[in-house]
Amino acid sequence: MPDTIPEPPAGRPRRSLTADPARFAREVLEPVRAIVGERGLLTDRDAMQPMMVAWRDSWEGRVPLVVMPASTEELAAVVVVCARTGTPIVPQGGNTGLTGASQPHGDDTEIVISTRRMNRIRAIDLDNDTITVDAGVVLQTIQEAARAQGRLFPLSLGAEGSCQIGGNLSTNAGGVQALRYGTARALVAGLEVVLPDGRVWDGLRGLRKDNAGYDLKQLFIGAEGTLGIITAATLKLLPLPTALATAVVSHRVV
Questions:
Q1: Cα 226-74-237 angle, rounded to 5 deg
Q2: Which of 58, 113, 216, 239 has the maximum number of C-beta atoms within 10 A of its C-beta?
Q3: Which residues form the FAD-binding PCMH-type domain (predicted)?
Q4: pLDDT at residue 143 above 80?
């Protein structure tokens, strides 16, 4: 992995959003502030810094603005502003990835949209064995909520105490139980997604036998935010195991 974020391809220069501060404030910052309020904005470089750096290596980005919507409606309205003004977006969840994909470039050419404030558990349906959550809910929180109801949400990985489910689904996370339960895409019943123009695609349903046309939710799982920003998901739950056994297998080479 390179030590610095690569430059854009030749012939496709990026425009720094801070090259014209007055225009950026007028066309992007103030309209976004009106949508999310002061709690939903970060413009201080020190406050934004943890969201700019990949924890494993030296990749570091730089943006003039981090936006933290509190709802799907706010996020969609922010995306409308960005689409209208041609402002590039980097969606970010828990920023726990290992590839640098959730970090922006280092030249103030993008803004980050973080889902950290979208952290509601919307519903648990025990009859259907599903849980519906916002994209910013931490994976461990979902596991604990399922366990409290005698259910299992089997997606499990090292960063489960800080990664967010929206990022897990956007990257089709595998985790340590993928061989038994499948990757993240196997655990999704429905999605809610904000599209690049700000429209909301509502595929948030828990229907188990759904053979009505294209399975559009699968397009967004693993797409890493390139086709839309996942804002909520209905996830499949399983019965909680009643017994656990640990085996140690030794193999001696003669």
A1: 65
A2: 113
A3: 59-240
A4: yes
- Cα separation, 205 vs 130, in Å, equals 10
**Span 178-223, pLDDT tens digits:** 999 999 999 999 999 999 999 999 999 998 888 888 999 999 999 9
pLDDT at 210: 83
Tell me the per-residue pLDDT of 9-50, one tens digit each, with 9 for 90 and over. 455 567 899 899 999 999 999 999 999 999 999 999 999 999
Alpha-carbon dihedral 40, 80, 135, 73, rounded to 10 degrees: 80
Q: Which residue has the tokens 């969609």?
A: 76
**Lookup: tokens for 242:** 């009643």
Write down the pLDDT at residue 150: 96
- Backbone torsion region of residue 164, taken as left when φ is above 0, otherwise alpha when ψ lies between -120 and 50, otherwise beta: beta
- The token pair at 141 is 């929180």
Domains of the chain: 21-114 (3.30.43.10), 121-239 (3.30.465.10)
Contacts of residue 129, defined as CB under 8 A and 6 or more positions apart, other chains included, come to 151, 236, 237, 238
d(CA 30, CA 97): 31
Instruction: Characterize 51-75 residue by residue with b for buried, 16 or more Cβ atoms within 10 angstroms of its Cβ, and e for exposed.
Output: bbebeeeebbbbbbbbbbbbbbebb
> At residue 24, what are phi and psi to the nearest 5 degrees?
-60, -45
